[in-house]
Amino acid sequence: MSGGLLPQPGHGPGPVLASERVLPVDEPLGALFPGAGLQRGSLVGVSGPGGVTLLLSLLVGPLSQGSWAAVVGLPDLGLEATAAMGVDLGRVALVPEPGPSWTAVIAVLLDALDLVVVRPPGHCRSADARRLAARARERGSVLMIAGGGPAWPERPDIELAAEADGWEGLGAGEGTLRRRPGRVVASGRRAGGRPRTMTCWLPGPDGRLVPRRSRDEPTVVAHEPPERVAWAG
Predict the structure, then answer these.
(1) From 3.40.50.300, 3.30.70.260, 3.40.50.980, 3.30.1490.20, which CATH number describes the 24-154 domain?
(2) Disulfide-capable partner of 195 in 42, 75, 171, 187 (CB 3.0 to 4.6 Å)?
């Protein structure tokens, strides 16, 4: 893990006050969640192109307000770009290669931290997935599953699907990638009813997820197929 030993997190092993049950996230992402934030004890699944940008964007608000997080199973995570997005790396434990006992690693992190992001490095048994979800509920932590790895056997409480159209900024053989228009669709049993959709730049010119307004004029050239994750359960 990075940053040495982490101090005991604020929520600890005891009960969490009702006023602390939601970890507020930065706008425009708050509009996707009932209560404008991540419900403690919930399981959140994130998939699609730009999913890592979306995951990291969800960490910015809670970390800025004193929460602690872990990112597990993302060995290719760019730390400079992550910090540029506003993620306080001093409050993040990085476990790029958790090893064969990775579910046990996740359990320990859920005991200690407010948010745990994981891209499963291997198959997870249904019994282990249920135990981890129960651990998150008991400890008041948020378990966030990143798509791109083996299928997760339990259906998340909130499913966030990132849909990207293509990069802008390239001309006829010249130019640089500037931004990518996209959408985020939130659904699931804790999504507050019908699915919610937010249009955004995923990412914008500065590498961050930002709202997309109607006056923005797209010049999309580089398309990529959407990634779909079929959550089990």
Answers:
(1) 3.40.50.300
(2) 187
